[in-house]
Write a structure and sequence with these properties.
The protein is built from 9 helices and 4 strands, in the order βαββαβααααααα. The protein is α+β, with helices and mostly antiparallel strands. It folds into 2 domains: 2-63, Alpha-Beta Plaits, CATH 3.30.70; 66-188, Arc Repressor Mutant, subunit A.
Length: 188
């Protein structure tokens, strides 16, 4: 049995869910972004309700229907791509997502935009800009290193998208060094 969990977007989220499962005495096979695999174990309604109540207090939510699960999988695949330090970030989403999720891209794109109100591409750009903000706040990389790390063809391409999304240039944002400008991944 697998349970899909909304807002489970990072390794810390996985640790939080793992702790809740241990507190509830629920044995699981594996935990990945957005899902817990219980293997052959089938949870009863009471166990699912207990789990749901506990994780909702922490900002998570069990996803019930298939379409919601698929949307969460799209988000998790994009977040993993943006935050990965491996692989080519210049990948085409129209090739990457079908490979990861085993669905036609046009179906994924239509479903995502109809439910989320934003295209997959815009969601991807928003994630990349949030990652750029994070890297700018850390102040460890130059703009050209950040652009390369996020798969932009040039600093000017990064700067253009950054300004379009935030209203600020990356240089101005870095000068502000205001971490409050960043948003949580699950709020994007």
């Amino acid at each position: 049995m697998k349970i899909y969990i909304k807002n489970m977007v990072c390794d810390r989220c996985s640790l939080v869910i793992e702790n809740v499962l241990k507190e509830l005495g629920l044995a699981y096979d594996s935990i990945q972004l957005g899902e817990v695999d219980f293997g052959e174990l089938e949870l009863d309604d009471e166990q699912i309700e207990q789990l749901s109540d506990r994780i909702e207090l922490l900002g998570f939510e069990i996803i019930g229907d298939r379409k919601s699960r698929l949307i969460e999988q799209i988000k998790n695949a994009i977040i993993s791509l943006v935050h990965s330090d491996e692989g080519d970030k210049r990948v085409k989403l129209s090739l990457y997502l079908p490979e990861q999720l085993h669905h036609d891209y046009s179906y994924l794109s239509h479903l995502f935009s109809s439910v989320e109100g934003v295209t997959i591409e815009q969601y991807y750009i928003n994630q990349k800009i949030e990652r750029a903000k994070e890297l700018l706040v850390y102040d460890e990389l130059s703009l050209s290193e950040i652009a390369w790390k996020l798969g932009y063809s040039s600093v000017s391409h990064l700067s253009g998208q950054f300004k379009k999304v935030t209203g600020l240039t990356p240089t101005h944002f870095r000068k502000l060094r205001d971490a409050r400008q960043r948003r949580a991944l699950d709020k994007i």
